[in-house]
Each structure stands twice: as C-alpha cells, then as structure tokens.
Amino acid sequence: MRFERREHRPLALIILTPLLAVAAALALSGLLIAAAGAPVLEAYWRILVGAFGSRLSATETLTRATPLTLTGLAAAVAFRARVWNIGGEGQFYLGAIAVAAVGSQLLAGAPGYLSIPLLLVVGAIAGMVLLIVPLWLRLRFSVDEVVTSLLLNFVAVLLVSMLIDGPLKDPLAFGWPQSQSVPDVAMLPKLVARSRLHWGFGIAVALAFVVHFVQSRTVFGLKSRAAGLSPEGAAFAGVPLARTLLLVACLSGGLAGLAGAVEVMGVKGYVTTDLSPGFGYSGIVVAMLAGLHPLGVVLAALFTATMFVGADGMSRALKIPTYIADVTVALSLITMLVAVFFAQYRIRR
Amino acid sequence: MSTVLDIVASAGLWAAVLRIATPLIFGTLGALLCERVGVLNLGIEGIMTFGAMIGWLAVYHGTDLWTGLLVAAIAGAAFGLLHASLTVTLGLSQHVSGLGVTLFASSFSYYLFRLIVPLAGSPPTIEPFKPVTVPRLAEIPFVGAVLSAQTPPTYLALLLSLVLAYVVFRTPLGLAIRMTGENPHAAEAQGINPMAVRYGAVIAGSALMAVGGAFLTLSAFNSFFPTMVQGRGWICIALVVFASWRPGRALFGALLFAFFDAFQLRLQTAVDGVPYQVFLMTPYILSILALCVMARRARVPQALMQPYRRGER
User: Fold this and answer.
1) Chain B residues whose beta carbon lies within 8 Å of the beta carbon of residue A84
2) Is the CB of residue B98 less than 8 Å from the CB of residue B234?
C-alpha cells in the first residue's frame, strides 16, 4: 500500500473534508456516549437544542464563539507562516489581565469612546509581547517555539494569579482571588438586549474578514504564506524572513490577547484564573478545522461553541460528563488531520 | 544564607529530589526514545494524564499497584500507536498530531474518570506504593535516609535510564534506533525497516510516559484530579533537548530540575514577602532557560520531524 499525491482536487472535496472530519469525530464520541449507556442520537439532539433551542442559548453560543474565533484566527495566522504558536492560552490571559489593570487603574474615569478602543489595543499588545518572546528565542537561539510558548502559558496564568491575589485584588470579592473590574463605561455594548451577547462577536467576525483580506490581497500576506511554505525559498526570493515572522507573531499574539480583552470587556468585567476554559488550546482545533482559512475559522468556532454550550444541558439530562464536548473537539482535530491527508493523497496498491 | 544551607543539608530535600524527578525521568526517557527515531511526541502531556488516571482507576478497582503501572503502560502504548499511525504511516505534522493526541488523551481521561467516579466532596483515594528499605544501603548515614524514603518505581526509573543508555549506545537495536533518527534512507539500505523501528520506539516511549504519569497517582499522591500533570510533559520535552538526546544526561537533567523544584518548595516556606506564584513559575522559566543554553549545542537527530516515505526524498 502506498500513497500518491492527487493531481487535481475538486472544490467539493475541499468543502467536504471538514464536514466528514466532524462527522467522524461525532461518530467516535458517539461510541463513548453509548458506552456510558446513554442514547447517542438523543444526546446529540439535546446538544443541538441546548446550543440553539432558545433565544438565550443561541446568544450564549455566539458569546462563547467570540473568543474562540479570535484564538482560532490567532492560531490560523501563525500556522500559515509555520510559527507554531501554542501559547494562545497564555496570551489570552495576559491580554485579559492587562485590560483589567489598565481599565481599573489608569482609565477609571475616562469616557467609553476613549477607553474601549484603548483597552482593546492594550489587550492586543499584551498578547503580542508574550508571543514575541518565544519567536525571538527561535530566531536568536533556534529554540523550538512550540515548547517555549507552551511553557509560557503556565507562567502567564501564574502571573495572573499573583496579580489578582496582590495589587489588582478586588477588596469587595469576599476574599476570592478576583481582579478589580473595568468601569462600566468601558464594557462593550450588548449586541442583543437581555443577553450576554456583546459587540465583541461583531469585532471577531469583522477581524476574520480583515485577516482574510490581509492574507490574500496584501504583500505581507504573500510574504507570510511564502515563509510558511518554504523558508529557504522565501529568503531566496528576497522575503525578509525575521521581520515577516515578527509581524506574523504580532498579528497572532495580538489576536489572542484581544480575545482575552474582549472576554473581560464583553462578559465578566473582571479576571479570575478560570476565565478561560481552554480557549487558547481550542483555538488550535478551530484553526485546523477551518483549514487555516480565516472565514472558515468563524464556522469552526461556531461548531466548537455549539459542542461546549450544548454539552452542559445534555450532561445534566443524561448524566454524561460535560468532558464529552472536549473529547469530541479533540477528536475532530485528529479526524481533520486524517481527512486533509486523504484529500491530498489517494491510496495506491 | 544559613537557611539555604540548612535546606541543602537536609535529607528531606534530597528525598524529595528523587521523588519529584521520578515522573520526569520516565517522561524524558520516553520522549527521548521517540525523538531518537525522528518522531517528536507532543502527546506526552495527555499520555501522562491518561496514565495517571487509568493506573489509579485500575488500583481503585482492586488490582495491585504493579498491575496498575502495567495497565498505564499498555494504555500509553495504545496512544503511541495512534501517534505513530498519524506521524509515521501518514507522515502528518508531528506538532499538530502530538497536540491532537494530548488534547484527546487528557479530555478522554477526564471523561472516563468522571463517568466512573462521580463527583464527591473529597476525592476517593487508594493505598499508594510504600517506601522500601534496601538492607545494606539504608545503613549509609545520609544516603540511607534519602533512599529509605523512596518507593520501588523510583528505583525502576533510575535503573531504566541506565538500561536505555546501554541499549541506545551499545546494542544493534540501539544502532538501528539512532540510524533511523539520523537517516532513515541509510537505515533502509542496511536492511532495517525504518517504519517498524519508528513504530516500536514511539509505542515503547509512550508507554514510559504513561508510567511516569501513573507514578503521580500511585506513589506521589493517592488520588487523581484533572490538570494534575501540570505541564510536566512539556518540561520533559525541554529536558530532552537539555540532555542532548542522551539517556544518561536525561537522568542528570531530571535530577537537576527536581533539585531546583524541591529547593524552591522549601524556600517558599522559609522566605516571607514573596508571592508563592513567583516560586511556582521557576520550573517553567528554568526549562525555557535550559532550552536557550542547550539548543545550539545539542546534537539534534537529523531526521527529527521528517516523515519517511519509501522511495521518496
């Protein structure tokens, strides 16, 4: 048995690939649901109803999809240029805590039209800084950025824990480690009244289009894709490799930091160490499911958010641990990798 | 200054060093074996989590502790088989496949654990490994006190690093392993099947990782809880680079690392006014520093992260 690269890939195959991957992941985790003694189809039906069955649940799913879209874009942008940014989780937290710090200390009296854009920028910059470190280490010492960006996730969460236990601790939180809140005027306005859905969702979707434009229509987009496809080739063609990768890192880290900023300014208003149920890691799955395409990221984020939000209600009704959502999402990363492979190769005997 | 000396001179510190190092030794040796044949295994974090969970679960359901370790090893081998199918047969990105394995293995272990052990106020416990005293060794003044505090898996880890060093550098099998990691085409020309060697090493290495995870629940603690592996897997990946892909140095690296970790734990209680999080950060920052110091000097297996396809260059 050997594999042979397909010479022609029809569009239908490219579109079908993620759908098949998700179907396979759902089938596999269906086995786990069945093993737990629960009806599989009913479980999935309940997930769907739990995620979109009412006005409240639908807005909740979109709220959950917001940070996932941004961390997904962060991973997609980086992976395109073969910058292995696995530090989305840390960048998310650093963006969040920067917003809480600046928002509650420096911009406490500023009007909303000033503080909202400023805080979004602050969050993005915090994320950038955390990714520039591993990238610099890669360029300077040739250290694999996968491990360093991963290790920095733990450092970032501990830093957040230290700050909300110390200088940024909210004295009114009954001793819970929780940061001081950003002022109400600095909160993102609601997109839908009487729900948690905020304008961050609009920002995330708009940024998906912006990233798509940048990647497909600008010189920088071309350079970053070239750097990913073949670093040697790109350098030979005159692409300044270090500078391009640095810009990619700024974009990627910035998006992940923005995810943290938006989550604070849109939903909670303050930071705790459980602000993110793994948004950074799920962002990697989202990016891969989307085939690294920025617009696909929005759809993949919706799928992931559906699983997570829907699994809550399903788990209460059928006594299945909510972790089934994490299992399905992780499995869909693996099935997607395999599906992409078979979209590119055919089996020859 | 005197507090520092007191800490270093206490047998308790050195006993803790060996205890903290044990899961790192297993994990680092496992990752090293995978990388020696050219496969980066970022599944380690998840595989350690799954090993910790399944080993604990087996013992909780009445098997003895050694069977628990064996169950963990078999489960780790199964995840190794998954990672090898993705990266060796299909030749997919080793980075992304490994992360996929980690995400799957860790969420699967949380799912399985929660399904079988319902949420309770205090987590259920098992009777973990007990320290053993080796008759002659226990009589040596300082060393005896340190060794008498150790459980059997710790001795197994120390022994294993010597065995692996011997196998990798002194046996035909080790030659095949190193050759496959340096140049699979040359290995094949010598009649070695690089695919088979890669499969074997990744499966065996993943089994070791899972045993390292199981040490956490069967010896270091007596219960399982999510996120208990705490990035130890990633630290092992860094230690492999620090060890320059040599089993003997991996043992040294794990011990050195465990020394710093045990030291900061004791310093935490001795020093006032520094937030405890600063101490908790040190292992991760130390790993990054170790990577920076060693990355240029280390001899990377030349075929690391390169998929091998027969008849393709």
Assistant:
1) 95
2) no
> Beta-carbon neighbour count of residue A106 at 10 Å?
13
Measured CA to CA in angstroms, residue B311 lies from A2, B84, B303 at distances of 10, 20, 16
Helix (H/G/I), strand (E/B), else coil: A346: strand
Mean pLDDT of chain A: 94
Tokens 């995620």 locate to A51
Q: How close is the nearest chain A Cα to the Cα of B236, in Å?
A: 10
C-alpha closest to that of A229 among A284, A292, A280 = A292
Instruction: Find, among A305, A245, A347, A346, the residue nearest to A68 by Cα.
Output: A305
Residue B254 contacts A, CB cutoff 8 Å: no
The pTM (predicted TM-score) of the whole model is 0.95
Contact A281 B103 (CB under 8 A): yes
Min CA distance, A15 vs chain B (Å)? 20
Decide if pLDDT at B216 tops 60: yes
Q: For an interface test with A, which of B110, B224, B284, B285 has the most A Cβ atoms less than 10 Å from its Cβ?
A: B284
Q: Which residues of A touch B90 (CB under 8 A)?
A: 3, 337-338, 341
User: Could you read off the pLDDT of A26-71 as tens digits, one per residue?
Assistant: 999 999 999 999 999 999 999 999 999 999 999 999 999 999 999 9
A308-349 residue pLDDT tens:
999 988 998 999 999 999 999 999 999 999 999 999 888 887
Instruction: Give the DSSP per-residue string, A267-296.
Output: IISS--TTS-SSHHHHHHHHHHHTTT-HHH
